[in-house]
């Protein structure tokens, strides 16, 4: 629910007590009758359609950004500032997909297209294969996956060919949505260490028996999904101030001396 709110995804909650949402596109139903459920569902759909129509053609034209020259894989290309965190349509290995970072989703016309694009993230990116589109424009097709899971799965499949990720201090700005990922345990452990921001994630992974190439792949995937923050590690907390020495009052001193106690 929290993740849906942060990403502005239409949400239909069902509980015994009212819940108030900040997003206008989200709606809550307190009663469980069919009439109330249908009415609330219509509210969510109508709000999403209004948002899409406001961001559809007329606000900004789709525009391809200049392609970078070099042997960059599709995954590495997605970490470029021109694409990271943006809504784009992409051609990966001849398969068309829609990446909607504003919703945390990736869409394709067929399951075959989705799987082929995921498995080709480690291959060289197509020249001018990515096109930025207005935010929340409807995607290609009806097949929809979590963007975080799509990138993590693809990165792990091509981990042997990925270059070492730059830097040594990282954190996550949000928790990744890995519910539909093929491999969840390792990425979730790495995400947990990144959230804690304590110690080197590579060292902790090594002690846990996780390969350096798996950590590296997750760093590339989290960066492509715009979750990774690269920077200096947090400053070490200041040591607690020393407690002031106790000053014995005359009465307590006399009592201590009376019973042979040192004060």
If helices are DSSP runs of H or I spanning 4 or more residues, what is the number of helices? 9
How is the quaternary structure best described? single chain
- How confident is the prediction overall: mean pLDDT? 76
The number of domains: 2
CA radius of gyration is: 26 Å
Q: Order of strands side by side in the largest beta sheet?
A: 6-3-4-5-7
H-E string: HEEHHEEEHEEHEHHHEH
Distance between the termini: 58 Å
Topology:
Layout lengths: L1 H5 L5 E3 L12 E3 L4 H21 L19 H4 L9 E6 L2 E6 L4 E4 L2 H9 L10 E3 L10 E4 H11 L12 E3 L12 H12 L4 H7 L4 H13 L3 E3 L19 H9 L5
Parallel strand pairs: 1-2
Antiparallel strand pairs: 3-4, 3-6, 4-5, 5-7, 8-9
Helix pairs in contact: 5-8
Describe the protein's architecture and organization.
With 263 residues, the chain is of the alpha+beta class. The protein has two domains: 2-54, no CATH class; 74-230, no CATH class. Helices cover 35% and strands 13% of the residues. A five-stranded antiparallel β-sheet has the order 6-3-4-5-7. The longest helix has 21 residues, at 34-54. Residues 52-61 and 63-70 have low confidence and may be disordered.
């Amino acid at each position: 629910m929290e993740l849906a709110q942060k990403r502005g995804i239409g949400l239909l909650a069902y509980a015994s007590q009212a819940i108030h949402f900040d997003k206008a596109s989200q709606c809550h139903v307190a009663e469980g009758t069919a009439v109330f459920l249908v009415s609330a569902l219509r509210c969510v759909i109508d709000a999403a359609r209004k948002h899409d129509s406001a961001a559809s053609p007329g606000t900004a034209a789709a525009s391809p950004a200049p392609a970078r020259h070099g042997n960059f894989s599709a995954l590495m290309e997605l970490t470029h500032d021109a694409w990271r965190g943006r809504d784009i349509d992409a051609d990966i290995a001849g398969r068309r997909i829609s990446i909607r970072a504003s919703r945390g989703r990736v869409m394709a016309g067929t399951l075959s297209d989705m799987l082929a694009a995921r498995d080709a993230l480690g291959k060289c990116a197509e020249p001018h294969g990515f096109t930025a589109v207005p935010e929340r424009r409807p995607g290609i097709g009806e097949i929809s996956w979590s963007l975080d899971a799509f990138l993590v799965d693809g990165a792990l499949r091509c981990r042997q060919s990925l270059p070492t990720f730059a830097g040594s201090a990282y954190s996550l700005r949000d928790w990744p949505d890995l519910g539909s990922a093929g491999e969840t345990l390792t990425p979730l452990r790495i995400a947990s260490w990144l959230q804690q921001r304590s110690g080197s994630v590579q060292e902790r992974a090594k002690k846990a028996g996780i390969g350096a190439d798996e950590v590296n792949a997750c760093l590339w995937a989290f960066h492509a999904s715009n979750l990774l923050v690269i920077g200096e590690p947090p400053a070490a907390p200041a040591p607690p101030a020393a407690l002031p020495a106790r000053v014995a009052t005359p009465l307590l001193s006399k009592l201590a001396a009376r019973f042979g106690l040192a004060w």
